[in-house]
């Protein structure tokens, strides 16, 4: 009989996790317009347990999300990035191989963002609850109408999470 309870518990967890994989909202929290699934903020988790806790109360945990670089190669030189050299663009952390490339990018980020090869779909690489490496299949995703709204959210997620419905 215990195995039946365990099986039912696992199946319900699978249903919750699969439902969470899509964006949690259908309207942009800033504009109220329909969402664009390409303009998102996705937090990764190590497991379904942490994902479920976050989903129940995102405002409690969103401040613990540590954003990391979205790229692994320098958009200017193509070399491996150095985590000491970063810049933010519309809430995304972009890394560079050195200070020279970082300076070039910050001079005209709107034009040079097109050169960034995004290597991750989540803003983090460590689970905000456990600190363990994330499983890219375990996410909490908020979608927006455009990248401008997504950038507003990424710049201050703790302030903006209450707008998500």
Query: What is the mean predicted local confidence, pLDDT?
Result: 89
Count of discrete structural domains: 2
Largest sheet: 2 strands, antiparallel
Proportion of strand residues: 15-25%
- Please state the CA-atom Rg, rounded to the nearest Å: 18 Å
* Total number of strands: 4
Helix-and-strand structural type: alpha+beta
Q: How far apart, in Å, are the first and last alpha carbons?
A: 39 Å
Largest sheet: spatial strand order: 1-4
Query: H/E order of the elements?
Result: HEHHEEHHEHH
Can I get a quick summary?
This protein has helices spanning 2-20, 48-56, 58-61, 99-107, 109-112, 147-155, 157-160; strands at residues 36-45, 82-89, 92-96, 135-144. It has 165 residues and is an alpha+beta fold.
Question: Can you characterise this structure?
Answer:
With 165 residues, this protein is of the alpha+beta class. The protein has two domains: 19-68 and 121-165, no CATH class; 69-119, no CATH class. The protein has seven helices and four strands, in the order H-E-H-H-E-E-H-H-E-H-H. It has helices spanning 2-20, 48-56, 58-61, 99-107, 109-112, 147-155, 157-160, and strands spanning 36-45, 82-89, 92-96, 135-144. It has a two-stranded antiparallel ribbon. Helix 1 packs across helix 2 (48-56). The protein is globular and about 45 Å long. The N and C termini lie far apart (39 Å). 27% of the residues are buried. The model is unreliable at 3-20 (pLDDT under 50).
């Amino acid at each position: 009989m215990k195995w039946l309870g365990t099986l039912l518990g696992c199946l319900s967890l699978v249903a919750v996790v699969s439902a969470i994989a899509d964006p949690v909202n259908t309207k942009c929290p800033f504009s109220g317009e329909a969402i664009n699934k390409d303009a998102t903020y996705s937090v990764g988790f190590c497991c379904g347990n942490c994902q479920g806790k976050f989903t129940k109360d995102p405002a409690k945990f969103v401040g613990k999300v540590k954003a990391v670089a979205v790229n692994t190669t320098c958009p200017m030189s193509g070399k491996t990035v150095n985590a000491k050299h970063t810049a933010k663009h519309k809430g995304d952390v972009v890394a560079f191989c050195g200070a020279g490339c970082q300076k070039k990018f910050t001079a005209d980020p709107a034009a040079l963002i097109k050169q960034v090869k995004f290597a991750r779909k989540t803003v983090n690489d460590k689970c905000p609850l456990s600190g363990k490496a994330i499983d890219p299949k375990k996410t909490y995703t908020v979608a927006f109408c455009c990248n401008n709204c997504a950038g507003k959210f990424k710049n201050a997620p703790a302030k903006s999470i209450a707008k998500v419905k």
